[in-house]
Amino acid sequence: MTIATALKLIQKNELILPAIQREYVWKPSQVIKIFDSVLRGYPVGSFLSWKVAPETVGAFKFYGFLKDYSGYDKKHNPVVDIPTDREVIAVLDGQQRLTSLNIGLRGTYAYRNPRAWANKAWSYPERRLYLNLLGEAPENEAGLKYHLAFLTKEQITQAAEDDTKKWFPVSDIFDASEAYQMAQIPVKYGVGNEAKAVEMISLLWQEAHHNQSLHFYEETDQDIERVLDIFVRVNSGGTVLSYSDLLMSIATAQWKEKDARAAVHDLVDALNTTGQGFDFSQDTVLKSGLVLADVGDVGFKVKNFTTANMARLESRWDDISTSLRIAAELLADFGLSGGTLTADSVLIPVAYYVHRRGLTPSYRVSDKKDDREDRAALRSWVLRSLIVRGVWGSGLDTLLRDLREVLRSDGAEAFPLATIEQVMARRGKSLEVTDALIEDILGLAYGGGRTWAVLATLFDHVDTRMQYHVDHVFPQAQLDARALKTAKSSEGVRRYSDEFVEELVGRRDLLPNLELLPGPENIGKSDTAPDSWVVEHYPGADEHAAFVKANALPSVLPHDADSFLDFYDARRDLLIARIKDKLQTQVRAAPTFESRRSTDIDAELGEGDLDD
Predict the structure, then answer these.
(1) Could you tell me the CA-to-CA distances from 116 to 112, 279, 338, 403 in Å, in that order?
(2) Cross-strand pairs, 265
(3) Is a pLDDT exceeding 70 seen at residue 244?
(4) Alpha carbon separation from 460 to 246, 379, 435, 522 (Å, rounded)
(5) CA contacts within 13 A on the Cβ side of 507
């Protein structure tokens, strides 16, 4: 089959994707690489397809291939309605390559500009694939021969005056289905006398329309179980396709009423637009589904995605979705976002707690004493679990099962903080404050993921539902290495030695020089020295003292670089005391965890597991 023939079948929805397929994940560089291979006459690999008979078509969901991809709002494959009176070809292996060819020859790829806002549409300009007809690719480590690039209309306009480049839209080759149409292209782009350019156009046309370069191996069995088995066997060896993609595919094939893929993707999108935005993945949502549906084993294993478990997940999906949304909103209330949440998995036990108690969105803002104290306990645990290294790392599935068991048995009326911490300690994930932990915390730096969690825990007077910034107590700008090294005394000699400058800069961004300030205050503070700024904003003796105490600041604040190190050491001592106070564990009051009385927790939790 030629590339053009395959793309025309895609265009007519005669070559489609079964619901078990994952979504498109290739990067622009991978698309460019496959087109470089096409131009060089290299094989692009074989494809595995499933010939779906008319009587089978109506029993499954199918999707179309992407033509215009956007990292902002066009990442999901469109659902296609297939008439039940004709057969279709569904691709089991090769979707990424075919989609890339479809985008390059027929569509667009809109990826985010460097350092642009992730949540703004204008950060993702539409780009088409172009081939430079006047030269080969610049020297590159990927070994590319042809100069291909995804470019915007503005970039093409700007390049019009560059005599070294003639950018040709690759999509024109697809439109030129006949040889005589291809022959007109060099004239159209003013390169009719450029032998190399004519050769490139002819070569690309030959590879797209003439050469039978796509080889399909076809499966005709209509048994979905066999098709699933083939799909898993073919794809599980890949490194790009994650195991959760495979399991997502199985779930999609087994749900009866809802579209599992659409349901999961819609929920991921909703969670990630909560608050200032998160970066939750499909993996997190799938794992959450297993936990909240009370599937015994929550590991990503094919045996856990049985028909019975998937039916349970589908029947409870609406409640699970609601619990996850409320949990994400609670995390946002705690001041967390994609940039500060260092372990997405903490969402799962929070969601299970919401699910267990049947909490509604009103819980977040309830002014009842019990609810305020409960939220404070939950917030404290979440933030402290993010501070201690390794809590959400190895042994995650076992930890999630343990937490679920505690919440199921003891979480009906309030968050069982003490019991949870005791169980975590037994699993080697203690939240106890040790000297090593204190040193680790004091070494956290500005911009680090755990830094926010630490500051929000230590300074719990801060209303994290409001916008707060991590601020340098002593301004970062006044401790600039270059400025310090060029500073002169009144006698005209250098003021600070290299060693002293290195010490200042080395401590400038560490925790003892950081605090949380409301956004507007932080912007207004700018580069003002802290002694002057505090006097200006808190002129009264009582409010001045209250601010200093609340933020664990020493009574004498620095005015210049000379007094910074004394301030740093004094603040460090105050933070050590604050850490010991605010991060203390609750294990001493923990009741006995009943489900551990006589049997091992792993044996207990495995009793309800289904066989393969």
Answers:
(1) 7, 16, 16, 39
(2) none
(3) no
(4) 42, 10, 22, 18
(5) 18
Q: Is the separation of the CB atoms in 200 and 146 below 8 Å?
A: yes
Amino acid at 236: S
Which residue in this structure is represented by tokens 């999901």?
Answer: 76
Contact 452, 470 (CB under 8 A): yes
Highest mean pLDDT among 41-45, 416-420, 542-546, 599-603: 416-420
**Can you read off the two tokens belonging to residue 31?**
């698309």
Phi then psi dihedrals of residue 130, to 5 deg: -125, 155
Residue 188: Cβ-neighbour burial (10 angstroms; 0-12, 13-18, 19+) = exposed
The angle formed by the CA atoms of residues 230, 232 and 235, to the nearest 5 degrees, is: 105
The three-point CA angle 347-349-352 to 5° equals 105
C-alpha triplet 363, 367, 369: angle, nearest 5°: 100
Asked if 264 and 75 count as a contact pair (C-beta separation under 8 A), the reply is: no
Distance CA 596, CA 604 (A): 9
β-pairing, 88-93 with 46-52?
A: antiparallel
Task: Output the six-digit token pair for 465.
Answer: 């539902």
Q: What are the pLDDT digits (tens) for 147-198?
A: 999 999 999 999 988 988 999 999 999 999 999 999 999 999 999 999 999 9
CA dihedral 415, 345, 235, 104 (to 10 degrees): 130
The string of DSSP codes covering 459-482 is: TTTS-TTS-EEEEESS-GGGG-HH
CB 132, CB 167: distance < 8 Å: yes
> Which amino acid belongs to residue 18?
P
Closest by CA position to 328, among listed 295, 364, 287, 293: 364
